[in-house]
């Protein structure tokens, strides 16, 4: 005869707090999914001159998304030079951006859980990635000039660059504020006739997919002149040619003449309202 076990089976023991679910919920500070979206984090990419910086700057037009801290990685503030309500810092390296991030992080108010800025913009994050790679290659060449081609990164240098950008993007995204990353557009074309051109955030290697994965919204920003009038469009639905996404599922396929306050209104609004029913007929496929 098999002896009865002296230790009760796990299934026979009620889990801790089984009879106090409400207390456990309070201790964990659980929320339903629709209350988790406290901030907009978005990556906007497109060709030079399309108006990406102007779009990001509209965050200063609404008290919910302002004040704005604009981190200029390229010297491209001409578009918003008339705006006295946007504070700007020129950034030329990852260590400098890390220092700014640390100052923002330690500025979080213990009572409100917020930082003094409503929105932080990095423009363009792709240029910062390029600057970081140049810094890495200079350091590598200085250490090993005989075996290093300063213009040809090895997998080791690509790995360092990738880790730097991933870490800083995740840190900025997790700050208690709206986060806007601006990026140049990258382009690929296939061998068909005529060739099919696809667009994506202009990072190199794995970063082109990984950085998009960190953000809730990724949009391709472009001008549409088919009607004779310039209509700026933000495509947030991915297609075979366009890398894009909208985790909030509130923005529809394409947003015409968007502003940052408009996008935030749409995300916070009921998904069934007319404002969010953007048709997909103008999608770049």
Explain how this protein is built.
The chain has 285 residues and is α/β, with parallel strands linked by helices. The chain has a single domain (35-270), classed as P-loop containing nucleotide triphosphate hydrolases (Rossmann fold, 3-Layer(aba) Sandwich). It has helices at 21-28, 52-57, 94-105, 125-143, 155-173, 207-214, 260-268, and strands at 41-46, 68-72, 86-90, 119-123, 178-189, 197-201, 217-224, 231-235, 245-246, 254-256. Strands 1, 2, 3, 4, 5, 6, 7, 8, 9 and 10 form a 10-stranded mixed sheet that branches. The longest helix is centred in the middle third of the chain and has 19 residues, at 125-143. The N and C termini lie far apart (71 Å). Residues 272-277 have low confidence and may be disordered.
Task: Let me know the CATH homologous superfamily.
Answer: P-loop containing nucleotide triphosphate hydrolases
Specify the CATH class. Answer: Alpha Beta
SS strand fraction: 15-25%
Any idea what the radius of gyration is? 23 Å
Give the termini distance in whole angstroms.
71 Å
Largest sheet: 10 strands, mixed
What is the CATH topology? Rossmann fold
Please, how many domains?
A: 1
Any guess at the CATH architecture? 3-Layer(aba) Sandwich
Beta-strand segment tally: 10
Helical coverage, percent range: 25-40%
The chain-level structural class is alpha/beta
Count of discrete alpha- or pi-helical segments spanning 4 or more residues: 7
Shape: globular
Low-pLDDT ranges: 272-277
Element order: H for helix, E for strand: HEHEEHEHHEEHEEEEH
| Average predicted local confidence, pLDDT | 86
């Amino acid at each position: 005869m098999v002896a009865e076990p002296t230790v009760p089976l796990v299934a026979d023991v009620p889990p801790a707090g089984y009879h106090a679910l409400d207390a456990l919920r309070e201790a964990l500070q659980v929320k339903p999914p629709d209350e988790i979206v406290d901030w907009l984090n978005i990556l906007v990419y497109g060709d030079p001159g399309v108006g990406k910086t102007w779009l990001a700057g509209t965050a200063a037009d609404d008290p919910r998304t302002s004040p704005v801290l604009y981190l200029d990685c390229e010297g491209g503030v001409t578009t918003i030079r008339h705006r006295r309500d946007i504070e700007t810092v020129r950034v030329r390296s990852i260590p400098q951006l890390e220092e700014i991030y640390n100052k923002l992080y330690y500025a979080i108010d213990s009572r409100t859980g917020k930082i003094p800025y409503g929105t932080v913009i990095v423009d363009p994050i792709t240029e910062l990635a390029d600057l970081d790679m140049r810094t890495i290659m200079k350091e590598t060449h200085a250490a090993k000039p005989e075996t290093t081609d300063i213009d040809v990164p090895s997998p080791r240098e690509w790995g360092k660059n990738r880790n730097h950008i991933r870490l800083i993007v995740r840190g900025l995204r997790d700050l208690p504020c709206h986060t806007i990353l601006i990026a140049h557009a990258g382009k690929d074309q296939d061998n068909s006739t005529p060739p099919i051109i696809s667009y994506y955030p202009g990072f190199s290697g794995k970063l082109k997919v990984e950085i998009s994965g960190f953000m809730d919204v990724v949009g391709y920003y472009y001008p549409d002149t088919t009607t004779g009038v310039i209509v700026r469009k933000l495509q947030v639905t991915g297609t075979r040619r366009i890398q894009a996404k909208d985790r909030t599922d509130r923005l529809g396929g394409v947003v015409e003449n968007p502003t940052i306050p408009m996008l935030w209104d749409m995300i916070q609004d009921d998904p069934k309202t007319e404002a969010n029913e953007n048709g997909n007929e103008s999608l770049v496929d």
